[in-house]
């Protein structure tokens, strides 16, 4: 059964906890938190089944701006003239100026990225330098090969914008002001920042509701695939706002035995001992051994990669020639055939 909690009560509890934690950390009783001390509100989503073939970046248009300062954004653009990157850069700067676009700090042609940011250190510094990376939708497919793991490790996936839109200012403003959640295909949990503690409880609640509804619509499998949604701040524990601990496709009519009693466990242990004893007796009888004579067991031949036999009766030179063409794994398998446990 899915359970929804009161979002506003959860937010008030987190705000009180965060405020108290900061008082204890600083050692001073402060009524109001300073703007530069604001914690981020984070939504954590856990799913039942991981879907998709690649990480999916979902934009969330929040009703209230969560960013405490203007974001530095870099825009990747396609090459108009490959041999003249300065011309390409100036062309798109003029385009942004004519459309009264604000918020883009730098324009970078794709050729400049390939040529000047090939070293690892250069790409890492580039990933640190900007809060958001925008890209022309026409070059989104080929951009990932040139960014490197530093961008994706920091969750700075490039956001596609259509530079051919008539209202280019609105297109880029929406991209800069949105929050982004990366729904990974490699894990069952994802997270996104949607507010900060300097905002009012009402504004935080509206941002949380908008983010949760967007995630429920865009995530693989929809609401039925969401297991839990938690809300937390940088200095607090995670509190649930939605739980769904039973999947709709489960057949609850089929029950499994559980809660074994002590006598059941005793009978089970006795049965296992009897089976082990009978197995040893059968091995002794098969080998014709006296009950007092020790039983020697050979190591089971597991993990053998090919049908091989121990190389006996060969000189050292012949053995070396025979194993020269073997791979390391085949050599290890060959050596296992000569091992025995007494």
TrEMBL record:
Localization annotation: Nucleus, Nucleolus
Lineage top rank: taxon: Eukaryota
Molecular function per GO: RNA binding
Annotated SUPFAM superfamilies: Ribosomal protein L1
Keywords: Acetylation, Coiled coil, Isopeptide bond, Nucleus, Phosphoprotein, Ubl conjugation
Coiled coil: none
GO cellular component, one term: nucleolus
Disordered, as annotated region: 313-342
Role: Regulates cellular senescence through inhibition of PTEN translation. Acts as a pro-apoptotic regulator in response to DNA damage.
Family as reported in the entry's similarity comment: Belongs to the universal ribosomal protein uL1 family. Highly divergent.
PANTHER family according to UniProt: RIBOSOMAL PROTEIN L7AE FAMILY MEMBER
Descriptive protein name: Ribosomal L1 domain-containing protein 1
